[in-house]
Specification:
By secondary structure, this protein is an alpha+beta fold. The chain has helices spanning about 10-20, 35-40, 55-60, 65-75, 120-135, 145-245, 350-355, 400-405, 410-420, 435-440, and strands at about 1-5, 25, 50-55, 80, 90-95, 95-100, 115-120, 140, 255-260, 270-275, 280-285, 290, 295-300, 305-315, 320, 325-330, 335-345, 360-365, 370-380, 385, 390, 445-455, 455-465. The strands form four sheets. An eight-stranded mixed β-sheet has the order 1-7-6-5-2-3-4-8, sandwiched between helices.
Length: about 475
């Protein structure tokens, strides 16, 4: 199969027709001299050429086909037939060659952008021939008398058509002039639009760079968060191990329940020991005493999740809970700070798993010049693990603040542990603090309580009992 797009097929037609001894079938809606005559003169016997075309006044008035061409072909004994619905362009040499395409046997067909497919495959040629013969059932022979009649009828109409054609050319010129004026008027708008597009593209690139930077930062943050989560899970596991091997913890165990306190007591719910256990005095497995100052605030942890809170311990009741405290003018590694401590004290069953990979302690150090150091941390019964801090500069830039933390991390951890673990009293508002249920859970929640000693200071450890 050959495809003719950038080259003309006229020469191929002549070669195939010249080498044929059989009847030829040609289907071309339009015919003009030169091309049609050149192709058909190549036939050994023109009387065996069957040419099918459109035979209507319109094609001759407009010049698409030429009456003179049909007359010359008729005089050359070419058989002419009319199929007025014809649009296809075929040249068929039976059992040898067939072409199907867009090119008519006209001069215009050799100049326009046309395409044709040619084949010498016998099966394909015969298939094209058989289907084309179906069209031949609708054909009508074009006689020389019909050609004469057509020429006579269209002669006056051609003059009218030419006048209309000239008027159409003038109209086309007017349309072109108007369009040129519109194009000139639009040129400035196009330039402005192009400039706007360039600006838009510049902004898009900048936004893309920002988006990429934000995405990279988000990925780094996610990676850091995942690394932190793994670290806190490991610390949680380590805390379990430390608690199981804790050398200084109470020999005695107290079972307690969250209950509604009697009318007149401060707070609504409290953690109350069963069988009259005393919460302020414990005996360690080593024989030494672990004592909590009565009605003062001390740290308490819930085993397993290792959530922290500050609880107000009376002899037989834990009444109030808070999740933070503040200490002023604390010397930490040679610098004066106001230290705020925050824990995750609020009870929630859904929050338990959500906070399994988060710190259980958070420090905020504020300096006298507005500088601030936020430090996530983990308290694990053997000290405090400090995580990477967020440093905020104050009223003036302190370039040594990051280095101060790195250099003194161990000393900072020691001082912050002391600030966290020693008992205290709130200066105000302690009786309006949340009651014990905010930390230990709703009424009926039961715990096994033990005391431990961390850095020579007591801490209460509560293990929730689940039935």
């Amino acid at each position: 199969m050959d495809i003719y797009i950038r080259r003309q097929i006229v020469r191929r037609w002549k070669q195939e027709i010249a080498g044929s001894s059989e009847s030829l079938l040609i289907f071309s809606p339009y015919l003009t001299s030169a091309t049609a005559e050149t192709v058909l003169k190549a036939a050994p016997d023109c009387s065996r050429c069957e040419v099918h075309t459109v035979f209507t006044p319109e094609v001759f008035i407009t010049g698409a086909s030429k009456i003179v061409t049909l007359r010359k072909l008729s005089q050359a004994k070419v058989q002419l037939f009319a199929i007025n619905s014809l649009h296809a362009k075929l040249v068929i040499v039976p059992s040898r060659f067939a072409s199907v395409g867009s090119q008519n046997l006209t001069n215009g067909g050799t100049q326009r952008l046309e395409s044709t497919v040619a084949t010498t495959d016998v099966r394909q040629v015969n298939e094209i021939l058989n289907q084309a013969k179906e069209w031949c059932r609708k054909r009508m022979a074009i006689t020389s008398e019909m050609i004469d009649d057509m020429e006579k009828q269209i002669r006056p109409l051609i003059k009218h058509f030419r006048r209309i054609q000239n008027a159409a050319l003038l109209a086309a010129e007017e349309v072109a002039r108007n369009e040129k004026a519109r194009e000139d008027a639009r040129e400035q708008a196009r330039r402005a639009e192009e400039e706007a597009k360039r600006e838009q593209e510049r902004q898009r690139r900048e936004a893309e760079l920002r988006r990429k930077a934000e995405q990279d930062a988000a990925e780094q943050k996610q990676q850091h968060s995942e690394a932190q989560s793994r670290r806190y899970r490991e610390l949680r596991s380590r805390t379990d191990q430390l608690w199981n091997s804790q050398p200084v913890r109470s020999r005695n165990i107290i079972y307690a329940t969250v209950v509604k306190l009697p009318t007149g007591r401060k707070g609504h719910c409290g953690l109350v020991p069963q069988d009259g256990g005393i919460l302020t005095s414990w005996t360690a497995t080593t024989g030494q005493h672990i004592d909590f100052p009565r009605v003062r605030w001390s740290p308490c942890m819930i085993a397993g999740m290792w959530r922290l809170a500050f609880v107000r311990i009376a002899m037989r009741t834990i009444t109030f809970v808070r999740d933070g405290l503040s200490r002023s003018n604390v010397t930490v590694a040679g610098r004066q700070w106001n230290v705020s401590i925050h824990t995750h004290a609020i009870y929630s069953d859904s929050k338990e798993s959500a906070e399994a990979d988060k710190p259980n302690l958070h420090y905020k150090l504020e300096g006298m010049y507005g500088q601030r150091v936020d430090i996530p941390a983990w308290f694990h019964l053997d000290g405090i693990e400090l995580d990477t801090p967020t440093v905020t500069q104050g009223w003036f830039n302190d370039p040594n603040l990051d280095a101060w933390f790195v250099t003194n991390k161990s000393a900072i951890a020691t001082e912050l542990l002391r600030s966290f673990s020693e008992s205290f009293n709130y200066s105000s508002g302690q009786y309006s603090s949340p009651d014990a249920s905010t930390f230990f859970g709703p009424q009926g929640t039961r715990y096994m309580l033990q005391a431990a000693q961390i850095a020579d200071r007591p801490i209460l450890v509560a293990t929730r009992l689940v039935y």
